[in-house]
């Protein structure tokens, strides 16, 4: 029996897919690094979409990441309008972009585990 997904989950997944394409194809700002849309969390009333993204920048500095997020949030109205052309909803949610640092945290944990294993082998 297939799993049941709520309308909120289905719409979040659709927004995630559509936004990823829009950012890749329509957002032409060279200051924005390579953006990956990780997940979209919709409010209960579907009025807001918190878009969690990972940004790959050349020097991996926090300043470049903040700049990319600022540009994405400034382009939110344009992206929302473009989303509205493809979504079959009465009201397109307002977009709020947030940086998802789970990859950095995961890499740091992996590094700590690797370091701990190395130190155990030397003892």
Structure, described:
The protein has 123 residues and is of the alpha+beta class. The chain has a single domain, classed as K homology (KH) domain (GMP Synthetase, Chain A, domain 3, 2-Layer Sandwich). 53% of the residues lie in helices and 20% in strands. The protein contains 4 helices and 3 strands; from the N terminus they run αββααβα. It has helices at 7-26, 62-74, 76-86, 102-122, and strands at 34-42, 48-56, 94-99. It has a 3-stranded mixed β-sheet with strand order 1-2-3. A hairpin with a 5-residue loop joins β1 (34-42) and β2. α1 packs across α3 (76-86). The chain is globular.
CATH fold descriptor? GMP Synthetase, Chain A, domain 3
Number of structural units classed as domains:
1
- Helix percent band: 40-55%
Q: What does the overall shape look like? A: globular
Our count of helices gives 4
Q: What share of the residues does DSSP label as strand, in percent?
A: 15-25%
Largest sheet: 3 strands, mixed
Helix/strand class: alpha+beta
The CATH superfamily bears the name: K homology (KH) domain
Q: Please give the CATH class.
A: Alpha Beta
Q: What is the overall pLDDT average?
A: 87
Count the beta strands. 3
Q: Ranges with pLDDT <50 over ≥5 residues? A: none
